[in-house]
Amino acid sequence: MASRPPVSLPKLSRRSRILLIIAAIVVLALLLGARLLDTYVDWLWFGEVGARSVFSTIVLTRIVLFFAIAVLVGGLLAISLTIAYRTRPVFVPISGTDDPLARYRSAVVGRIRLFGIGIPVIAGVIAGATGQSDWQRVQLFLNGTEFGQTDPEFGKDIGFYAFDLPFYTWLLGWLFIALVVSFFGALIAHYLFGGIRLAGKGGQLAGPARVQLSVTIGIFVLLKAVEYFFDRYNLLFSDRNAPLFYGATYTDLNAALPAKLILLCICVFCAIAFFVGAFLRNIQLPAIALVLLILSAIIVGAAWPAVLEQFSVRPNANEKEALSIQRNMDATRNAYGLTNVQYEPYSGKSQATAADIKADQGTIPNIRLLDPNVLSPTFTQRVARENIYGFPQKLDIDRYTVNGKTQDYIVAAKEIRTDGLAENQRSWINRHLVYTHGNGFVAAPANTIDRAVQGANSDGGYPVASTSDTQNPKGSGIEVTEPRIYYGELATDYAIVGGAPGKAPGEYDTAADRNYLYQGTGGVPIDNWFNRLVFAAQYGERNILFSDAIGDGSKIMYNRDPRERVRNIAPWLQVDGDPYPAVIDGKIQWIVDGYTTIDNYPYAQKTGFGAATQDSLSGVARQANNSINYIRNSVKATVDAFTGQVNLYSIDDKEPVLKAWENVFPGIVKPSSEISPKLREHFRYPEDMFKVQRELLSKYHVQNPQEFYTTQTFWNVPQDPTQEGGINPDASGVAKQPAYYVLAEVPGEDKSKFQLTSSLTALQRQYLAAWVSVSSDPEDYGTIRVLRLPTDGSAQVDGPVQVQNRFQSDAKFAQDRTLFTNQSVNVIFGNLLTLPVANGFLYVEPVYIQQRNQNSYPQLARVLVSYGPKIGFAPTLDEALKQIFGESPGTTTPPVQQPPQNPTTTPTTPSQTSQTPAPPPTGQANPELDKAVGEIQAALAKLRAAQQSGNFADQGAALAELDAAAKHYETAKNAGGQTGGG
């Protein structure tokens, strides 16, 4: 029966069409408006940092990819629909008067252009929007370089696997998608127009429909043959024996690899069968070929490798997999920078005498007593002064040479902290136009504590922290010519700076200068109405548009976090989680480490980046758990704390992944020759890189494949024993011990070096198996040394957990801890350092106390020391060492030291005396000073008695006496010329 003529659809009036067009424009504006706004704001920001070439390259690549994929998917679908429509039967049979397809067929025919163009466009837009995010894969393919190393199986350069193979796999994936979409488009079109009929026995398939669908399937199968060809190379990333090792196994090489070639040939035969069958009325040939392909994939591709694995490989795995394991070991060491590790035997026998300790001038005098992960509240209360300033949760460690002496310092930038503003300070103008920047670089010698103000119990010690700021540029002994900090880790909100004098409200600089106006190069101009409108819309803040405080010369600062700035300029970098401030040529620069990574280095072990870098530390950015099997710290970035200027420097100019990205973004990364010596002096070996490497070293220190397979000699990263209950545990529930920066002497050398260190214990055991360090000195930066302890059990050395257990069971510690642990005091265990000293290991752990009241902060109370079976526990390191070795080594930096005269580091105020001990006797002939000490101790005794009795009047009187005694002490000290005692 012939089909009925299509029912015409109602015509739209001119007015209706106009309204529909307007509605479509409004919807499109709502959908794209926010994206266009973000794009313009990003364009302005990239202009600020001089990196618009990065922005334009990324945007252009995304646009080209969008249209390329849209044309591929949408174009093939359009061609498929066009062929199906033009080859439709002239007379479309219908099943009856109520044929359900008639209505849809009439609607399509009535708007054939709308459906014929609209459906492919929608499919293309969806595909293009999805595929444009893969711009990095395409750019690496276009700009990839050679590694100069080849894989051991096919002899291809590693660059093929890093840059080419991922692109081919990606392109094949989109071709498959386009063919599948066009196949189903043709299938539906032929069914709609009668080319495919389901009525009758077995249905009917028209000739044109058979040709089109068969050819499409044939092309699909032919592409499958190409995929099998490239799958041979993907076998080198096999996870068949994961997690023990990655790479092509014996089964992969002897069963899966031949199977890929066999299936490739069958796919070619099957594709030919479909092409031939397309022009024959009998479709049995392509059907038989398809069944053959499916059976071959099951038998040859899956069953045969499984049988070989089960009955041949597993019973003899240590021998069968030896070649694959050796390849995995070699590739992993190359991929993770572990080829030049220096392994040294170390006895670990702790038999040193006091004379040996005195002779150690590289490690003992530099032992770090200050824990940067504990002392942020202490810095905040004792150094930050105004409530608008603060410090990150984790402070940093760096080394400086002051007065000719090099030592490590706890360092921090005193940043603006708008979250700490009082209620009456939180107006929009205060938050964004007045409190705009921090002021000062703070440094405290890491091996020194201040007991210049101590009480009768001598239980308090503080960092000798001082600040180089606008009032005292050399306050810490480190000169800072521009101490203002507009860009930092705490700057999470935007700031509007500069402007016309008399119109702008003025930025808080110091208590004496509240009218400072920014004069640097940072920020985006906001002194024109268009930009003001843009940022008012961006932040949803009408004050930006209407405030009279914004005028000529005003700028807006955003994206102020150093990590965020580096990540935006170099989105191809993995950025280290812990930036740190350094003073370079008088300017505060944030130093940020950047990593180039890939996940397709043949045979190399795959590692979860987030899992490998996760430990008990808090206050650092956590890495996403991306799978990687190659990493290099190829870039060091600096971010100027005043101007926000970002500079990227190459560490290894020949690193192939970095070279590929330099081809994509020429001129963005500066060569290593432009790194100044002063900047290089402050490079630290990055923590996240080291954590990944130590995780791999715990396995890949093994040299023999059979030994590797048994895993008996593997090591473990120890649990952090100082964190009770565990902080930031990994998937196994264990919080790993962090790596620690120390200034110490490496065994076999006669010079102390700034290095990053970690202990490693035996597999699932607590005793020490190795000690790893990596140098941060410019002379041998990146050199990894491993001290290997004996494995025969003759000289077993306690690991960190065992030492911590002995600390807590020590009678003297248990007695004092009972005094510490009461309702008003918390005990905080600092970092447990493991230091090789005189053929043994010296463990040092500071113990802090913190009162349980508002605005209290940790203070160093005791030092725990372990050497062999002996334990020292005393208020000072010198005394603790004396308990172990019988006499004072006499080499440690005096723990009692008065900080430089600086208005930001006044050691005592009446408000602090409730938790601040009084000064000790100096041991010098100064009767007035001794008298003042006695007065302070007496006033403290009265204050404690008044606090216990709850008599507020007596507390006030005692505080007044204490204030007077403190002033007497200061006068007597200055008159006597005291600079600190020990």
Structure characterization notes:
- By secondary structure, this protein is of the alpha+beta class.
- Among the domains are: 63 residues, no CATH class; 225 residues, no CATH class; 59 residues.
- The protein contains 27 helices and 34 strands.
- The strands form ten sheets. Strands 3, 25, 26, 27, 28 and 29 form a six-stranded mixed beta sheet that branches. Strands 17, 18, 19, 22, 23 and 24 form a six-stranded mixed beta sheet that branches. Strands 30, 31, 32, 33 and 34 form a five-stranded antiparallel beta sheet that branches.
- A hairpin with a 5-residue loop joins strand 27 and strand 28.
- Helix 5 packs across helix 19 and helix 6 runs antiparallel to helix 7.
- It starts with 13 loop residues before the first helix and ends in a 6-residue tail after the last helix.
- 45% of the residues are buried.
- The C terminus is likely disordered.
